[in-house]
Amino acid sequence: MKKVFVDGSAGTTGLRIYERLSARDDVELITISDENRKNLDKRIQAIKSADAAFLCLPDDASREIVGALGESKVKILDTSTAHRTEKGWAYGFPELGESFRGKICSSARIAVPGCHASGFISIVYPLIFSGLMPKDYPVVCYSVTGYSGGGKKMIAEYESQNRGRELDSPRQYGLTQKHKHLKEMKKITGLENEPIFSPIVSDFYSGMVVSVPVFTRLLAKNVTARDIYLFFAEHYKDEKVVKVMPFGKEGFLGSNNLSGKDSLEIEVTGNDDRVLIAARFDNLGKGSSGAAIQCMNLALGFDETKGLDL
User: Fold this and answer.
1) Choice among 56, 115, 141, 295 that is catalytic
2) Burial (CB count within 10 angstroms: exposed 0-12, middle 13-18, buried 19+), residue 178
3) CB-based burial label for 238 (10 Å; 0-12, 13-18, 19+)
4) pLDDT tier for residue 39 given thresholds of 50, 70 and 90
5) DSSP class of residue 1?
C-alpha cells in the first residue's frame, strides 16, 4: 500500500485526482484538516510522510513547496507550469520515448504536462526527434478546448444563468502570443522558435482538439500524407494510452468525443501538399489528472494504466 498526498485537492485538477485515488485499493490517501490546508509546515509534514505527492497549486506555491522539501526523496508530481522546463525534472509524457518513460520511473521530481502542450508535443516532438521536421520549421498550432480548462472561475462563468452572450460562441485567447504553455512547447520539442499558437475556448465542458498543419514541401524529405500517417502509427504502435486512428478521416472532428476519457487519439488528414495532424483528448484526462495518475503509476511501480478510463 502506497501513501499519497494531494496538495491542492480543492481545485479542479486536485479534486479529480483525489476522487480517482479514493476508489483505489492500493493507495492510502493522507489528509489534513481544512484549517491546516494553507499551513506550510503541516503540508510539508504530510508530503514527507507519503510515497508520492501531487502539487495542484499555483506556480509560486509549487515552487515554495519544492524549495521547502529540499532533497526529500518523496515522488513529487507537479501539475503546475512551474517546473516543466526545469533541469532535473522528468517531463510526464511517457509515450514520447523510452528516455521519457525511464525518467518518470526513476525521478523523484515529475512535471505533469499542460493540456494544450500535451496535444502539441504529441505531434511535433516525434517529427523533430526523427529529423523529418526541421527545428526551424515555422509551426502554427490551433487548439479548441472546453471551458473546464479555465478552472473554477471560468466554469462558474460559463454555467451562470446570467452569463454574457459572447460565451455562446468560441472565443480565441492568448492574443499576445505569450501563453504559459509556449515555453514547454518549444523546449520539449526542440524547436528553435516558439510556434504561433491560437487557443480557443468554447461552450462545452471538457475535451479538446489540438491541430498542427504541415506543408510537406517544407519538411526534410519528400513524404506523402500517408507516409506521415505511417510514421505516427509506428511511433505510437505499442502505446495503450495514445492511439493513431485510421488514415484519412473526412467530415468533422469533434472536440468533446473523448470527454471523460484518459486516452489521446492522433488523426492524420489532408493531402500530399498540406497535411493536418490533430490530437484529440480530454483536457481533464490526458490533459491533466489522467496524465498525473499515469505518471504516478509509473513512478510507484503500478501498472501504467491502472485507474485510467481508456
Assistant:
1) 115
2) exposed
3) exposed
4) confident
5) -
